[in-house]
Write the structure tokens for this entry.
Amino acid sequence: MSTLDLARLQFAITTLFHFIFVPLSIGLAIWVAICQTLHHRTGKEVYWRMTLFWGRMMLLSIAVGVVTGIVQEFQFGMNWEEYSRYVGDVFGAPLALEGLAAFFLESTFVGLWMFGRERLRPGVHLATIWLTALGSVLSAYFILAANAWMQHPVGYALNHAARRAELRDVFAVLLNPLLLLAFPHTIFAALLTAGGFVLAVSAWNLLRGREVDFFGRSARLILPILLVCAVLTIGFGDGQARLLEHEQPMKMAAAEAVYKTQRGAGLSLFAVGPLTAHPRHLLTNIAIPHLESLIATLSWNGKVEGIDQAQREEERRYGPGQYMPIVGVVYWSFRIMVGAGFALLLLALAGTALLRRNRLARSRRFLRLCVAAVALPFLANWAGWIFTEVGRQPWVVFGLLRTSEARSPNVSATELVISLSVYILIYAALTVIGGRLLWKEVGHGPKPAAGAEGEGAAEEVALAY
Amino acid sequence: MRDPGALETVWFALVAALWIGFFVLEGFDFGVGMVIGLRRRPLEEQRALIHTIGPVWDGNEVWLIVAGGATFAAFPGWYAALFASFYLAMLAILACLILRGVAFEFWGKGEGERWRRGWEVVLGVCSALVSFLFGLAFADILGGVPLDAHHNLRGGFGRLFTAYSVFGGVAAVLLFLAHGLLFLSLRTKGRLLAEVGAAARAAVGLLNLPAVAFLAWTALEQRHGGVKVSATALAAAAALALLAARPLLGRGAGRAFAAGAAGIALGFAALFVWLYPAALPSSAPAAHTLLLRAAAANHYALEVMTIAAAILLPVVVAYQAWSYWVFRQRLGPAGEGAALPRRLLRDGR
């Protein structure tokens, strides 16, 4: 394994681990804010208990998300020195803004929320959770602005003497058309993640007949949110795909495993190619005729650009080279993302239908399905991330800088192996411990209502440590 | 040596201010972490100690993240050279910050004395180690490390350890421990206050001494190329403030804490002024020193970031100050005086 592979593996592992918690935290923060708002409006005890129960899970998720995020902030400098030099002028700005505008907000107000319940007026305390949620949403905006620039560089000029890209128009970077689609896509996906999680935990407890009112109410509240977010996530995802057909034709061609540019292209459901990184053809392809053209171009015989043509065009623009990403990874990650998204949509539809007929809590088969579906949003998030990053290869900044030119030239393989091992060890420990604590929280269920337990109860309800 | 432009100087000052904010604020979090890790205490006492920094430590740590982000945006060349050169030290810092961060949350969510004690030790050890590594790294930056033409460290991790840098690391650990003790003198009551107050009275004077000595050592090291009056004056003021902290303790913990905080702020300010106009000095050969000018982003990017920082940073300072105001009460073990928030949380409103 080369040092480049090690650095890439490290980025992939640390980012994917971090990305388990980020969408969950964003979604749960909004969900907890909704619960607390309901309590604030209605004064009903159950909404406050929901705020506490889901709030504790949100805090666990934020804790792991925050600490693994620190690694991301410094990893560019440590492992991707040439990248940092080349893009820092542009890429650093959204990163600094993320810290200034989002991280400070999120971290300060989550502290105020955790510890401030009896120090702040109820309305002010409610505001602190909404500001926490706002901070987490803003952080998604800025980091996606940075990522969108890597996918579709705008608002910059090349300084050939300094061998770097320089910022020319910050508003172009912050209003990147790709960002305007990727941001809502990600935020609704985050809500979908939290929604799937809340639904699964609720279903799991309903199946055991525990706290039926509490979890029934949680499920009833979350299902419509889930439905709306599934539709919107898919909608904005579709918009991104259309934009990418123009901006990164190679990525979309690889996503559909379309090699030859064609009219009336079929939508591939299952394709297998030779087991190499860059196969030139497919071995098997089961496709629905014309559907790909219909989706991509909204016409029966619309023209869909293939991998071979994209390769030729990039060779013409950037010189000879391999411009094909690992087709198998791009194709299957795209399918997993889209498949999981639609599965969640169907689940939300079925749940909403049961809800309307008031049969949700009794439908055991559906509840079991909800428990199993907890993996879907996480799978979709991972697949989406892998798709967008692997699909951009061999570029780290599309059309400007190749991944192979981006790493730190003097960081040795030994150092990379050490750091990779340290991260794997720590993250594995976090998974085991965090998972156990989360399981305990789920298992314990919500704390009993006030007065239901003796005053001397050892484990009191708290958000604080 | 070409001087940096005005905007680059502003950004250097801003990056310095972010680091100073980090050390002044997170410094006492590190100190409190060490106090918690140093010895066993009854559950409620340790909880009260954790709660003195519970609401704010995360916000304090963001000063580091933003210092990193601001360096990336304003001085990409510095960001790239610095973190690649200090690779393993930075890895250790990150590992400690991760473990330290989850230690709070895991401590509170788990059960059993051994579980909690385990995380208390993690908290203490990581707080001390991070302090040491930051002290070491700053001493190395100031003193210079051997760099290649690419402004990367030559000779590997071992080159970071010199008598001067190790002393800087030790001084930082003790300085932050003192800072934590003074912070706790301000934020605790009852039995806890008796304990930390006594520790502060006994130790703060001694604990601050190595930092004063480190500043003096640095002043001697930095004489080449003429004495920098501004930096020397800042360092002298810092030394005075650090030496005044213990005597001021008799006149109230608030004054002593303020003196200690001022000492940390002035001391790090002195280090940054000494560093200027370099970003990363090379000890050998000197020609490989990375200058701020060479490391900076272009004028437009700096302008944009200046406007953003001018708008956002005062707002941040305002709400962080407000959060310190909200959590100004002294804390002690539950049952000793006023109740902790947890009891009130129980009954909903």
User: Anything to note?
Assistant: Chain B is about 75% helix and 0% strand. Chain B has one domain: 12-344.
